[in-house]
């Protein structure tokens, strides 16, 4: 009887559980400790963590998102089959409203949808890119701290492109950038950048690699704006005349350089002239000319110390020009548009003289910049002389951005664009206008150019350390990469240089033609180039007044038993079309700072020299 009772009881329990059914799903909701609440405003655009809570076991989630503009957008499936109730959003638009919802699913296939939640991103976007230096490549892993005065708002780390993004309601920020083995880099007075990144050099530390070392702290840059009589200027009012800028740099290291420039970031004179500079001082005063500038114009002050800590201060001034009523202004005429890719990077900041070369920058290991040059104004044109020229850049041929204002000069009739947005194979357009007083001409189209990629040269024969080489050797080498361009066929150019310096001190040797010109060897592919010693006349040579000149003719064969080094003295690839030139330089070096001058910027030493010893036979 008792056994029957338990059987009946079990049967009743089974029937009751079958009637109750599975636990119903509950719509997901936002927990109170989630970082983004429903209706939250001033949300960042990158690294936005959405969290929700749901009841059930082994649930998976689909996340939907839509941007609300004038009309409600369509739902986009952002992620599906998530096993955790959280997801990080990236690359959102600033100053935008977003709605999101979650679909929860259990192992039986039952689903339930959350309410629609919303948030609004902050109005002001700051995009910062850490680079090796002006025209250099990106630096990954840099800690970027965003401050509003002394308040730390957020810390982010740069990605492989050297980028971080941050959206906020603050209209001006200070950023501090740190990475071990690099100097501290600070920018003060940064306004929202929009989608175009603010590039900030963060250079290799010279002596003290730890950015948190107390000796790298307490950096300060004080800037005073004075009139020409040294009286303070109220910069909330328009500036109508030239003025002075007095700069005090505080650092625990020795000071190295102080720069100042209106309109664009200053650096080495090679690519940022005209600008003001002073070296090895804590205090500097410069006179700033306002010709060509109008409206809101940034004044950039940049200082470096001996550890390559960098401090940049941006002060926005309102400049008011006199009225230019006539329209008899000279229109710019293009002289040259050239994209320059350099295999080995150069740091575009330094004392006057030789630039400091490093084997690392962008594209990785290189520089990339564009030279925009116009013809000098002449009184014979019958047109009024401009006060300045404005240079504009576009990546679509339609929408142009001002990148430089160059005051009129008989020396500086050019500008360099060294934006981190430049890239091999990416077409870029330029236009230039003339400015006088408050008047600016229409933009004059300077055409477009497609920068080339980098390449190097492989030395093949004679091989390094080879012995018993012919007294009339055949030099063999080849480009390491085939370059292509939509603007035409890319041509590689080289010469061969022989250095008899292993056993004696004398001049290097290369081939010259009957007119005393360097013999150039060219190819359009990556096949092996052969240069026969016997087929050319070889001369000892040197450089005089910047010109490579033959000194005296060499014998028609190398000296038996002598040891030599050989290399390609210069190597560059070039392509031209009707409106531009693109050049990629692999090397251009003779000795010390001497070069052949095919590199438009500076000298660039070769990676390899093959040493060989001549045999006794022919």
Automatic annotation (TrEMBL):
Domain Fibronectin type-III: 34-124
UniProt xrefs under PROSITE patterns: FN3, PROKAR_LIPOPROTEIN
Superkingdom of the organism of origin: Bacteria
Keyword DNA-binding in record: no
Signal sequence range: 1-20
Keywords, sorted A to Z: Signal
Official protein name in the record: Fibronectin type-III domain-containing protein
């Amino acid at each position: 009887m008792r056994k029957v009772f338990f059987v009946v009881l079990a049967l009743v329990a089974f029937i009751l559980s079958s009637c109750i059914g599975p636990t119903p799903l509950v719509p997901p909701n936002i927990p109170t400790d989630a970082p983004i609440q429903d209706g939250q405003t001033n949300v960042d655009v990158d690294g936005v963590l959405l969290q929700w809570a749901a009841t059930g076991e082994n649930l998976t989630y689909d996340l939907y998102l839509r941007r609300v503009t004038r009309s409600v957008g369509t739902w986009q499936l952002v992620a599906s089959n998530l096993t955790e109730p959280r997801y990080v959003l990236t690359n959102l638009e600033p100053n935008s409203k977003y709605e999101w919802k979650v679909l929860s699913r259990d192992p039986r296939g039952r689903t339930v949808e959350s309410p629609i939640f919303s948030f609004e991103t902050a109005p002001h976007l700051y995009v910062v890119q850490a680079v090796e230096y002006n025209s250099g490549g990106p630096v990954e892993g840099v800690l970027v701290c965003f401050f509003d005065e002394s308040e730390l708002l957020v810390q982010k780390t740069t990605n492989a492109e050297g980028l971080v993004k941050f959206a906020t309601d603050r209209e001006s920020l200070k950023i501090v950038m740190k990475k071990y083995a690099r100097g501290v880099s600070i920018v003060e007075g940064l306004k929202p950048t929009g989608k175009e990144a603010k590039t900030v050099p963060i250079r290799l530390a010279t002596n003290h690699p730890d950015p948190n070392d107390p000796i790298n702290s307490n950096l300060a840059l004080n800037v005073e704006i004075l009139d020409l009589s040294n009286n303070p200027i109220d910069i909330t009012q328009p500036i109508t005349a030239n003025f002075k800028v007095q700069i005090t740099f505080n650092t625990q290291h020795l000071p190295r350089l102080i720069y100042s420039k209106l309109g664009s970031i200053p650096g080495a004179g090679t690519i940022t002239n005209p600008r003001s500079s002073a070296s090895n001082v804590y205090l500097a005063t410069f006179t700033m000319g306002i010709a060509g500038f109008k409206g809101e114009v940034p004044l950039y002050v940049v200082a470096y110390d001996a550890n390559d800590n960098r401090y940049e201060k941006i002060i926005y001034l309102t400049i008011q020009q006199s009225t230019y009523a006539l329209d008899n202004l000279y229109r710019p005429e293009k002289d040259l548009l050239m994209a320059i890719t350099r295999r080995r990077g150069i740091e575009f900041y330094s004392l006057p003289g030789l630039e400091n070369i490093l084997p690392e920058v962008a594209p990785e290991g290189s520089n990339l910049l564009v030279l925009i040059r116009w013809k000098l104004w002449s009184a014979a044109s019958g047109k009024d002389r401009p006060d300045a020229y404005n240079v504009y850049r576009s990546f679509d041929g339609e929408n142009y951005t001002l990148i430089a204002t160059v005051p009129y000069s008989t020396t500086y009739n050019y500008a360099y664009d060294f934006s981190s947005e430049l890239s091999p194979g990416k077409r870029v357009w330029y236009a230039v206008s003339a400015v006088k007083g408050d008047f600016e001409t229409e933009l004059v189209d300077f055409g477009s150019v497609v920068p080339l990629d980098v390449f190097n040269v492989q030395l093949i024969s004679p091989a390094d350390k080879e012995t018993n080489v012919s007294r009339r050797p055949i030099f063999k080498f080849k480009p390491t990469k085939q370059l292509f361009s939509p603007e035409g066929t890319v041509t590689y150019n080289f010469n061969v240089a022989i250095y008899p310096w292993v056993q004696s001190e004398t001049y290097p040797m290369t081939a010259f033609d009957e007119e005393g010109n360097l013999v150039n060897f060219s190819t359009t592919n990556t096949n092996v180039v052969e240069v026969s010693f016997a087929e050319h006349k070889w001369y000892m040579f040197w450089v005089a007044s910047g010109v490579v000149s033959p000194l005296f003719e060499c014998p028609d064969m190398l000296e038996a038993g002598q040891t030599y080094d050989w290399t390609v003295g210069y190597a560059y690839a070039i392509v031209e079309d009707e409106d531009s030139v693109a050049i990629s330089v692999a090397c251009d070096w003779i000795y010390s700072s001497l070069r052949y001058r095919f590199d438009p910027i500076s000298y660039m030493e070769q990676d390899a020299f093959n040493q060989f010893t001549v045999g006794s036979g022919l």
